[in-house]
Records
---
Amino acid sequence: LDGLLNKPAPSFSVTDRDGNVYSSDNLKGKKVVLFFSEGLACYPACWNQIASFATDQRFNTADTVALSVVLDGPEDWQKVTQKMDGIDKANIVFDNGGQISRTFGMMSVTSSMRQGTSPGHTYVVIDKQGIIRYVFDDPSMAVRNDQIASELAKLN
């Protein structure tokens, strides 16, 4: 993962459950947090982080967005959004076939419970120019809002 640091983020394009497209191109000018997770299979840890990003205003500003990247499909998440407070407001984006997770090298991180086939619990912070400035893989699978907000604050 250290090989990602201070390099342009790989090109990506993902869609949320409402059909909004987020891409490396249309996110330039914003600070971006990509949270790669095992999604539905990672309950409650990943769900807690996803919901926490959604309800924390530090990650939902005019110049900052947190995207939770999952391999599951939108229809699977529709049921979840009705079960947990906050998660319905989350920017959950769908990595169909795991292509973006593979491009970012997230399939073989320490936190992955299914090495090679699924991401774990990993954060990537991208600056307004599209450069990766921080990567953190978290095998303890905690909610890391303060830590990630601190890294965002270092970016101008």
Note: Helices lie at 45-55, 74-81, 99-103, 145-153.
---
Amino acid sequence: VQTIILRAGDYLAPEIGDSHVDMIYLRAFAKGVVTTMGDPEIERAHVWLPDMARAGAMLADKRADLPTFSDIPLPGLTFSSAQLARAIELQTGRTLRVKPFPWWLFSVTAPLWELAREMKEMRYLYDTPHRLSGSRMAKILPEFQPTSFEQVVAEILAQRSPQAAAA
């Protein structure tokens, strides 16, 4: 069975919903806050879901040229929560504060909520810089061009408020 694994960082989606942007970074955006799960200057791997879908379709089209098992990292976007806050400020003209996520909530809820237990185990990832290499993807799909960070931020903002999109 041919298997293609397309790996990526935390999901960013244009629609308001269950992406990392909504659940973490912009959970208090209406109050002028960008939330960080760790050191706000630590860069981490993220992926714009429309890019991941496009890359997946492009890889499926090339499956005949791929080995039976392919593990392909999609480099996506690498940024910190502080960089996200600055990009939003540039596009909206708003001043934002970067505030830490209240990890104590997971300690309190962990006995009853499995996700809280799992998140506590992964906390180190929010203080460890990481990115995905794009070398394999570039060899297989040299024509693939990801959406720019600035455009991703603009599309995310467009879903949150008419004022943010107009700025």
Note: Residues 163-167 have pLDDT under 50 and may be disordered.
